[in-house]
Specification:
The protein has 186 residues and is of the alpha/beta class. It has helices at 38-47, 49-62, 101-119, 138-155, 169-184, and strands at 2-4, 9-14, 24-28, 70-74, 85-89, 123-126, 161-166. Bound molecules: adenosine-5-diphosphoribose (APR).
């Protein structure tokens, strides 16, 4: 499903983010940019060791990436697939919802899109940040993710397409339902 907003299109895809032909893909990273499991592991495997080296250079400068913030690196071997940048953002760890988790998650999406505009990425893909190892409930996360992306695409010029790439069928189905609700409310 896709939804056309003022400056760009939001599209939902069931698939693997490392296989998307977009300018930038977003990684659900950790504060140390160490690589991990889930989508982080898949991105590091696909990009190769150069990505880890670049991440460590960033950490030498900033020590840690705070939850909700975003930085970018090049895409290592994924360059061959047409991907130019990886935007790394750290989602909130779910602790019941009253510890600022919704605000942090929203900032992940908005800051990643701001960074994409700054580096000139016109197409980008997001995973469902925080809904794996970090335990954020999928439906709540979908509302925040899609509302933030839609709002950014209504307000700012620069990104032509944002793809939400959902690896698990049930996460895709939840996002689809949420987008239908949000889209019809427009
Ligand atoms: N493409 C797209 N989405 C994927 C892929 C993939 N190749 N692999 C996994 N996912 C999905 C998961 O199914 C989940 O819905 O990404 C979503 C986010 O899950 P995680 O990768 O576990 O990310 P998160 O919950 O934000 O936890 C981050 O996990 O890997 C570590 O280093 C990472 O510590 C950090 C933490």
């Amino acid at each position: 499903m896709e939804l056309r907003l003022k400056y760009g299109t939001l599209r939902l895809v069931h698939g693997d983010i490392t296989e998307q032909r977009v300018d930038a893909i977003v990684n659900a990273a950790n504060s140390r940019l160490m690589g991990g499991g889930g989508v982080d592991g898949a991105i590091h495997r696909a990009a190769g060791p150069e990505l880890h080296r670049e991440c460590m250079e960033i950490i030498r400068k900033i020590v840690r990436l705070e939850h909700g913030n975003a930085v970018y690196t090049r895409a290592g071997r994924m360059k061959e697939r047409g991907i130019r940048w990886i935007i790394h953002t750290v989602g909130p760890v779910w602790r019941g919802g009253k510890h600022g988790e919704p605000e942090i998650l929203e900032r992940c999406y908005r800051n990643s899109m701001k960074l994409a505009r700054e580096i000139g990425a016109r197409t980008m893909a997001f995973p469902s940040i925080s809904t794996g190892a970090y335990g954020y409930p999928v439906e709540k996360a979908a509302k925040i993710a899609l509302s933030a992306i839609m709002d950014e695409l209504e307000k700012h010029e620069g990104i032509d397409e944002v793809r939400m790439v959902l690896y698990l069928r049930e996460v895709f189905d939840t996002q689809l339902e949420t987008l239908r609700e949000l889209g019809s409310g427009n």
